[in-house]
TrEMBL record, chains A, B, C, D:
Domain HTH tetR-type: 9-69
GO molecular function: DNA binding
Annotated DNA-binding residue span(s): 32-51
Protein name: TetR/AcrR family transcriptional regulator
Gene3D superfamilies named in the record: Homeodomain-like, Tetracycline Repressor, domain 2
Taxonomic superkingdom: Bacteria
InterPro entries: Homeodomain-like_sf (IPR009057), HTH-type_Tx_Regulator (IPR050624), HTH_TetR (IPR001647), KstR2_TetR_C (IPR041490), Tet_transcr_reg_TetR-rel_C_sf (IPR036271)
Entry keywords, A to Z: DNA-binding, Repressor
Length: 199, 199, 199, 199
DNA sequence: GATGAATGAGTCTTCATTCAT
DNA sequence: TATGAATGAAGACTCATTCAT
């Protein structure tokens, strides 16, 4: 196996990019390691200098996607917004991040089940942490008195919002030709908030 | 190919049952036709008397699941409930149906993407029709003045409800150990309705 | 896997014959499963209907050779010969059997080390049993008073005789162009016996 | 390719040592060049500065083992022993040398067949020369009248003795847990000589 | 002289599908 | 109708060897 850490990083990025492209087109199982190597720009031998098995690629892909989503989301959440708008803003931010990484997210949604058990657990953990980011924003709104929700409702709302973000990709056939991302964001935010605002 | 229609039906049901069991355990791609034949109780030769290719099995499975969900849901929706409760009732019914067919729904969620294009279109069409069932219930509430929603909101709400039903299965790792189906139903219904009721 | 036991036996015999031919020529590791299939007269797919892995073939080969050697030897040992001649006869019989199965024995000598652990143990056990056959003949001569040997000497003599039989194959480059099997048998018998006869 | 002869010698010795260790553990074919390089303490690139192909390593190993055995044996044979004892002594010396280089000898026994033809011939030549060393000792005993043997018997006896020495390694599973090297030496010497001494 | 990243031919093995019985 | 033996294309992965630095 190759030693140069920088090279490893570079090559793996090449692989991940190639893999996402191919997984989108044909799914994980129908994509061959040779195809990934070719799309990555190197030989099958070289591919295996950087991974141990085909499943490793799927893992790298999932891991990288989470990191990207997470990083981008955190970057956006830093903005200083107050009150109920902080939640509005968070939802919009999340939706936008997912929209930007649409293909990647879709791949992860469809293929992560093929991960070996241990890796799957790890990936689910990341999904959990992402949900918590949203949960915290909601919690803050509740704490500050802008929303009135039970703990269970907070927890479930966070999951709902995340799934609604993912929905934008995995149900694109039903949604994306109906409205733009901005419209979608507004509709979902309204549906969600109108019921939660104190009356 | 076999001609006796009754036999065809019987054999296909055997296959579908076997396939669902196996797809749940190992996914479509990791399940072999031989395994399906064995689990079905007949030989690989016989299997191919009733299907043309492995993908046909996946199609049969998906088709059958939709029919079951659809049929069960329609049965439940027949109940005569009035006003906003009709929607409450519809949500509960949907959630219950999905819960009953949990494994099947999960398989469809995870594997339908492997369907050949034509078959996928057909299956999505069924998903559409299912959404319309919910949409109609919402629409009725709006028409009758129990809810105030734009057309887009109606459309999106129907999708949301359906996805929330599916969520109960594909996010079970995060939800099913938190609350029972009844609790889940109540939480989701509250979150949804409290915002939609006229104030 | 194929069910018809008779067919399994037949196919495996084909495989074993093909494998011995090839292993002799190029050794186990340099022989591919495809070559074995081809030489056996069927496709690679069919080959794997009758074995689980390449190592299985080696095991089948070794097992079969032992059975052949053993069977042939036992057949020959049945002859009714008395006194010290029973030993002379046994040695000659053993040498002849090994000579008949020269290639097979050589393969086993050179390749059995590549057997997976468990299989190796099993094969060594068979080698042991074969040695015991010789040991018994010697023992009988001692018991009857034709030879005077300690237990250790009996044990070691049996091993020596067996190795001398194998030697005829694995040292053929030094021996077989010097004398015929009959001559070899006589020389070895003399060298061995002349020292053991009571003086 | 490197030119410094001293360095070549040093590097090759490192390689041989590493290779023997690994060949013992896993055999020639299952050992990779990378592993040999690593165990040798240098890179795969460096390895190929000192050899042309993997087979070269096997050749170096075999050649080196013969040289060691041969050298050690000759050293021991120098002792001044007279009469039949010279043969006793030679046998003991040979057995001891082989015992000292047990692993190496075993490797050679099991793997030399994988040598390319030309190299194999060369190695067999060395084996021949080694046999001749023993042959000479026996011949001397015959010439001096201590033993009475035909030429063929002399030739074969030398081979027998050598194979008995090797047997100590390749049949260790049956012998080494029965008696010590000294006991083994005594048994074999007795079995051999008692028949050859003039009566 | 030493390094180690890159290569790709070659290997074992799987599995959907066919077809004679 | 049912069976299951036969097929071979295709896939994951290995490893001896090269060569630019």
């Amino acid at each position: 196996m190759v030693k140069d850490q920088l090279l490893i990083k570079k090559r793996r990025e090449q692989m991940i990019k190639a893999a996402v492209t191919l997984f989108i087109q044909k799914g994980f199982h129908r994509t061959t390691t040779r195809e990934i190597a070719k799309e990555s720009g190197f030989s099958i031998g070289t591919l295996y200098e950087y991974i141990g098995s085909k499943e490793d690629i799927l893992y790298l892909v999932c891991d990288s996607i989470y990191d990207q989503v997470s990083e981008n989301l955190k970057k956006r959440l830093k903005q200083d917004v107050e009150g109920i708008d902080s939640l509005r803003y968070a939802i919009a931010a999340l939706f936008r991040v997912i929209d930007d990484l649409q293909d990647e997210v879709l791949v992860m949604y469809q293929e992560s089940k093929s991960l070996p058990k241990e890796a799957l657990r790890y990936v689910l953990q990341k999904e959990f942490e992402m949900t918590e980011l949203i949960q915290e924003v909601i919690q803050e709104c509740v704490t500050k008195g802008h929303l009135e929700l039970t703990d269970q409702e907070i927890y479930q709302s966070a999951h709902n919002i995340l799934v609604q973000a993912h929905m934008w990709t995995f149900r694109r056939w039903a949604i994306q030709n109906k409205y733009t991302l901005d419209e979608y964001t507004e509709i979902q935010t309204n549906l969600f908030l109108n019921g939660l605002l104190k009356k």
